[in-house]
UniProtKB/TrEMBL annotation:
DNA-binding is among the record's keywords: no
Entry's Gene Ontology BP terms: iron-sulfur cluster assembly; mitochondrial respiratory chain complex I assembly
Coarse class of the protein's main subcellular location: mitochondrion
Family: Belongs to the Mrp/NBP35 ATP-binding proteins family.
Cofactor(s) this protein requires: [4Fe-4S] cluster
GO cellular component: mitochondrial matrix
Record function comment: Iron-sulfur cluster transfer protein involved in the assembly of the mitochondrial membrane respiratory chain NADH dehydrogenase (Complex I). May deliver one or more Fe-S clusters to complex I subunits.
GO molecular function, one term: 4 iron, 4 sulfur cluster binding
Name of the protein in question: Iron-sulfur cluster transfer protein NUBPL
Alphabetic keyword roster: 4Fe-4S, ATP-binding, Iron, Iron-sulfur, Metal-binding, Mitochondrion, Nucleotide-binding, Transit peptide
Organism the protein comes from: Ridgeia piscesae (Tubeworm)
Annotated compartments: Mitochondrion
Domain of life: Eukaryota
Length: 261
């Protein structure tokens, strides 16, 4: 720990931002961005007085533009700060607003780190009660840059119940603990599929994997979200499920955990 902190500037909070919560996963495709977006919306829906933002720090594979139905360009204000784009009352910033959806970003780690620093510190975020950061998967440069640039109030780790995903989720949780970021708990996603025709329930990616990891690492399970067509459809169409169907059972888990947050 001491070695990592050596020579680095002290962490400084983002002006006007009260709480920063990161949503992370060990693997890609487990529902991290879906969770981040619905968590942000649920926080805002639950308390209209609260202002919420989403920072998409997944520079190589930004999902927020599509999920929040937003497109660039991004403008710079008089103070030289990037102006976030807003939908559903949520301020959003993503590299995807500044690049073409179809062209890959071919960058080295240093460029990624400086882009993330810019999106943290040079965006007109203030005032915000919560900034939800959608992290890239894994435990690399981007994750460390974030953890070492700003104080993070908590990390939420998303995983499917599959062993391979849980192994990586454990690494993620351990990385945050190493850099003194409190891990708020685990979100188990895609745990069960219920056939809409016959009601048969199938645990496609396994069952209870997250609970076991939770027990081993003394982490709470914050939500258990089923695999459901409406979650996929609403994510892809930029109308996240918390907005389109706040009463749906798929949302309950997510909402419950937001209310306890
Ligand atoms: P990640 O951020 O971990 O890469 P995403 O949130 O982008 O994962 O999810 C990957 C894909 O899976 C998306 O198309 C999303 O709509 C879909 N998805 C995520 N969670 C669910 C779920 N519980 N049920 C159905 N589809 C889901």
């Amino acid at each position: 720990k001491a070695k990592m902190a050596k020579g680095l500037p002290k962490k400084a909070p983002i002006d006007g931002v009260k709480n920063v919560i990161v949503v992370a996963s060990g693997k890609g495709g487990v529902g991290k961005s879906t969770t981040a977006v619905n968590l942000a919306l649920a926080l805002a829906v639950n308390d209209k007085a609260k202002s919420v933002g989403i920072l998409d720090s997944d520079v190589y594979g930004p999902s927020i533009p599509r999920m929040m139905n937003l497109k660039g360009p991004v403008y710079v204000n008089e103070q030289g700060l990037l102006q976030p784009l807003v939908n559903f009352g949520i301020k959003c910033m993503s590299m995807g607003f500044m690049t073409d959806e179809k062209s890959p970003i071919v960058w080295r780690g240093l460029m990624v780190m400086s882009a993330i620093q810019r999106m943290l510190k040079q965006v007109e975020w203030a005032p915000l009660d919560y900034l939800i950061v959608d992290m890239p998967p894994g435990t690399g440069d981007a994750q460390l840059t974030l953890a070492q640039t700003i104080p993070i109030d908590g990390a939420v780790i998303v995983s499917t119940p599959q062993d391979i995903a849980l192994l990586d989720a454990r690494k993620g949780a351990e990385m945050f603990r190493k850099v003194d970021v409190p891990v708020l708990g685990l979100v188990q996603n895609m745990s069960v599929y219920e056939c809409p025709k016959c009601g048969h329930r199938e645990h496609i990616f396994g069952q209870d994997g997250a609970s076991k990891l939770g027990e081993e690492m003394s982490l709470d399970i914050l939500a258990d979200i089923p695999l459901h067509l409406s979650i996929r459809e609403t994510s892809d169409s930029g109308q996240p499920i918390v907005m389109s169907d706040p009463q749906s059972p798929q949302v309950c888990g997510t909402l419950l955990f937001c209310l306890n947050a």
